[in-house]
Amino acid sequence: MITIATYVMSDIHGQYDLLMDIIEKIKLNDEDTLYVLGDLIDRGPHPIKTVLKLMEMPNVICLVGNHELMAIDCLDFLMKEITNESIASMDAMTINNIVSWKINGCDTTLKEFRALDRETQMEVLEFFKDFSLYEEVTVGDKDYFLVHAGLGNYRPDKKIEEYSVFEMVWDRADYDIQYFPDKYTVSGHTPTQFIEGNPKPGYIFKKNNHIAIDCGAHIPGGRLAVLCLDTGEEFYSSYDD
Questions:
Q1: 36 pairs with which residues across the strands?
Q2: Helix (H, G, I), strand (E, B), or coil: what is residue 168?
Q3: Cα–Cα distance for residue pair 222/140, rounded to 1 Å
């Protein structure tokens, strides 16, 4: 008998080998659901290979991370033919977006993206644009709020719809604040190695109904982490060499 499970992971950052390793470890089957909380791309060696793999998996639901937002902001322009008109259309915002993405590690993404044919490039870009900003799921008797980063400028009386995209994908979670009295917030964005006071850096971090699952796949010694929402079981990829 196959047990259907719900899993979450985040911040793959182009680490295709780690992704395949951990998919094998959790024995993901077609009936399971895997939520990926953004930042599939940039920094690691195979971001587009990672994206293409996830695109072919119908049981994967992706949320947008700040790196996908940067890609969306830049790729529409970068896919254009370089002409006098396209150069003239480069305003300060376009230039700033490209510079910001460059600083944040887009080189491997652009290298693999440029190797694609134009049809596949468009499919990848549309895939990014379809990502959810957040998801609310119930597994068993527990409710979860899934988001890439957190809830910036948090207020208890602030409705989810009032938070900006920036506040959800760029602003880091405040683990000293419990966002919801009756649900768990699962997020990535901040590697658990960098959470102040974390007694187990590099492992899933839990505090005040927060569950932080970015275990630094893109940093030396980092790994991908997957949490099974049904059982609470934690899975970790092998260390990146």
A1: 9, 62
A2: helix
A3: 31
Using CA atoms, how far apart are residues 37 and 11, in angstroms rounded to an integer?
7
What single string gives the DSSP state of each residue in 110-137? HHHHHTS-HHHHHHHHHHHHT-BSEEEE
Query: What tens digit of pLDDT does each residue of 141-181 get?
Result: 999 999 999 999 999 999 999 999 999 999 999 999 999 99
**Torsion angle, alpha carbons of 62, 16, 188, 149, to 10:** -60
Q: Tell me: the pLDDT tens digits for 173-198?
A: 999 999 999 999 999 999 999 999 99
How many angstroms separate the CA atoms of 204 and 220, rounded? 17
Measured at the CA of 63, the angle between CA 141 and CA 35, to 5 degrees, comes to: 45
Q: Return the number of other C-beta atoms located less than 10 Å from residue 67's C-beta.
A: 27
Q: Quote the longest CA-to-CA distance of the chain.
A: 63
Tokens 């796949």 sit on residue? 217
pLDDT for position 94: 84
Mean pLDDT, the chain, rounded, equals 94
Determine the Cα–Cα distance for residues 77 and 69; give it in Å rounded to an integer. 14
The rounded distance, in Å, linking the Cα atoms of 51 and 189 is 18
Tell if the pTM clears 0.85, that is, is over it: yes
The pLDDT-based confidence of 215 (bands split at 50, 70, 90) is very high
Task: State the first-to-last Cα distance of the chain, in angstroms, to the nearest integer.
Answer: 37
For residue 206, give both structure tokens: 């839990």
